[in-house]
Design goal:
Rossmann fold; thiamine pyrophosphate binding; 574 residues; alpha/beta
Length: 574
């Protein structure tokens, strides 16, 4: 074994764990790690805010399936990372955040930029640890990657006192490798019971959550669904787990991000096999409505997730990929391959009979028209990134997704500003893909300084801004209170001109105010981004008072968009 600077051992660990890009900001307390990075094959992207660095690492992780890495110095660098850690924790995204720290013997003396970041980060990480000895450095980082990947994935924070970073350790990269990660298979008996319930139901559904995407289990999901001819719905985090143009696609149920026909299908179902879904409140709405008339099988890798929101009729603990593979295998053994039946035909009727309009020619532009143009222009392999607000809800309701890891959204935490840095991370991971960030005007302003990062490093992507000059989601939420308070973002004289902001960063931008210009603007932005290797903005001015259809329960959508008269009595005998 050779004695080496311990930070060189850490960088060797990062390289062997498959990290080719890290996002960060150097500072005095983290410079020994940066000195080691300088000699490595790892690309460093200097961000403009540590929160942006965590979101970029998050985006990189979501599209690669690997562990993203963000680096900052001591004090406020670490506290700035907390939102990104929370976002990754909420959405089960594996990232490692590394912070510098004051020397160990100064931590109790209120040293400059010394803060107990480990204690601050514990509630929003799977593991937060401070490196105490230089000899532990490679092994602490190996364990961090194992923990980030294992079970329900999530974030880890490692705090590095600067004096420890300067130490040495015995390490030979030729003798070391990543720690194994357990992929738990489900119990055989539980698999048999789940398949019996699924095959015996008259109107079954499979609900694919984000865990199916994280587990790379889309193929296994499709095999099970097609053999038994069971329709498949997705959650917002599960978009892309099942192609939305497949005959068995059954839409999306929910109180915000949903399809009308998806809610109707769900309400007619009698059994739901939920895989890698956490039953979030924006999906379920009123639990009494959600559960009434149907049984549930819940498959999750995290045992404590089962029964957390409500008790299922059957809980199955296991990784989504082997669980779905085992169910597909069991189904092939006990049930002959099925053809489309009454239930699948009913799903088709609801899909055809309950569409939402998206062909509006109104001025100002109606948001559904924007997503119609997005669906028609961009290819199936395009990766979309979006965050939180009315534009996320419209995206969930109207946008089509066909492949896993092509639709990225900060689902539970919902931090404004997530899209631009996340898009940077995505494009760094997959430079060959077209990347599109769908943003709101207010969200864009939270971390718009990260545009400078994309411009500096020539990271091209398209930004489509849905601008209604309001805090639109809050304005809609205020309606029952009969108020319209503190939500006006009107950009008149003295306000923000987003086109000029982009131009100040050296990036092209265009504003669109009539629907007939949308297609041309998207064509222009796509070509400009690729040719000039820069982020390009299309700002779309939509009607200010546009609302998103949503309600407190799955059936409350009727209050916003009355359903046409349709026969609900169906003969399920075949």
């Amino acid at each position: 074994m050779k004695r080496v600077p311990c930070m060189e051992a850490v960088v060797a660990v990062l390289e062997s764990e498959g990290v080719d890009t890290v996002f960060g900001i150097p500072g005095a307390a983290i410079l020994p790690l940066y000195a080691a990075l300088r000699k490595s094959s790892i690309r460093h992207i200097t961000v403009r805010h540590e929160e942006g660095g965590t979101h970029a690492a998050d985006g990189w992780a979501r599209v690669t399936g690997n562990v993203g890495v963000s680096i900052g110095t001591s004090g406020p660098a670490g506290t700035n990372m907390i939102t990104g850690l929370y976002t990754a924790m909420a959405d089960s995204i594996p990232i490692v955040c590394v912070t510098g720290q004051a020397p160990k013997d100064k931590l109790h003396q209120e040293s400059f930029q010394a803060v107990d970041i480990v204690e601050i980060a514990k509630p929003v990480t799977k593991w937060a640890v401070q490196l105490k000895e230089a000899a532990q450095a490679p092994w602490v980082f190996r364990e961090a990657f194992r923990i980030a990947r294992s079970g329900r994935p999530g974030p880890v924070l490692i705090d590095l006192p600067v004096d420890v970073q300067r130490g040495t350790c015995l390490y030979d990269r030729e003798l070391d490798e990543p720690f194994p990660v357990d992929v738990p298979a489900p119990p055989v008996g539980a698999v048999r019971a789940a398949v019996d319930m699924l095959a015996g139901a008259a109107r079954p559904l499979i609900l694919a959550g984000g865990g199916v995407v994280i587990a790379d289990a889309a193929g296994e999901l499709r095999a099970l669904a097609e053999h038994l001819q069971v329709p498949v719905q997705v959650t917002l985090m599960g978009k892309g787990a099942f192609p939305e143009d497949h005959p068995l696609f059954a839409g999306m149920a929910g109180i915000q991000t949903q399809t009308r026909w998806g809610n109707a299908v769900f309400l007619e179902s009698d059994l739901v096999l939920a895989v890698g879904a956490r039953f979030g409140d924006r999906h379920t709405g009123d639990l009494e409505v959600y559960r009434r008339g149907r049984r549930f099988v819940h498959v999750d890798i995290e045992p404590t997730q089962i029964g957390r929101v409500f008790e299922p009729d059957l809980g199955v603990v296991g990784h989504a990929r082997p669980a779905l593979a085992a169910m597909a295998g069991q189904a092939r053994r006990v049930v002959p391959a099925r053809g489309p039946g009454a239930w699948t035909r009913r799903v088709g009727e609801l899909r055809d009979g309950l569409p939402r309009r998206d062909d509006f020619d109104d001025v100002p532009i109606k948001p559904p028209r924007v997503f119609r143009e997005i669906n028609e222009f961009f290819g199936r392999d395009t990766t979309f990134v979006t965050a939180i607000g009315l534009y996320q809800i419209w995206s969930g309701q109207f946008q089509k997704t066909y492949l896993p890891r092509r639709y990225l959204v900060c689902g539970q935490a919902g931090p404004l500003g997530w899209e631009v840095p996340a898009a940077i991370g995505v494009k760094c991971a997959h430079p060959e893909r077209e990347v599109v960030a769908v943003v709101g005007d207010y969200s864009f302003q939270f971390l718009m300084e990260e545009i400078a990062v994309a411009a500096q490093y020539r990271i091209p992507f398209v930004i489509i801004m849905i601008n209604n000059e309001y805090l639109g989601l809050i304005r809609q939420a205020e309606i029952p209170y009969d108020m319209n308070y503190a939500v006006d973002l009107h950009y008149g004289e003295g306000g923000i001109d987003h086109v000029k902001v982009m131009e100040a960063f050296g990036c092209p931008a265009r504003k669109v105010e009539v629907p007939g210009e949308l297609r041309g603007a998207l064509e222009w932005a796509s070509a400009e981004a690729e040719t000039r290797r820069l982020p390009v903005l299309v700002e779309v001015m939509v009607e200010r008072e546009a609302n998103a259809a949503m309600g407190p329960a799955l059936d409350a959508i009727k209050e916003f968009e009355p359903l046409p008269r349709m026969a609900l009595a169906v003969d399920w005998s075949d």
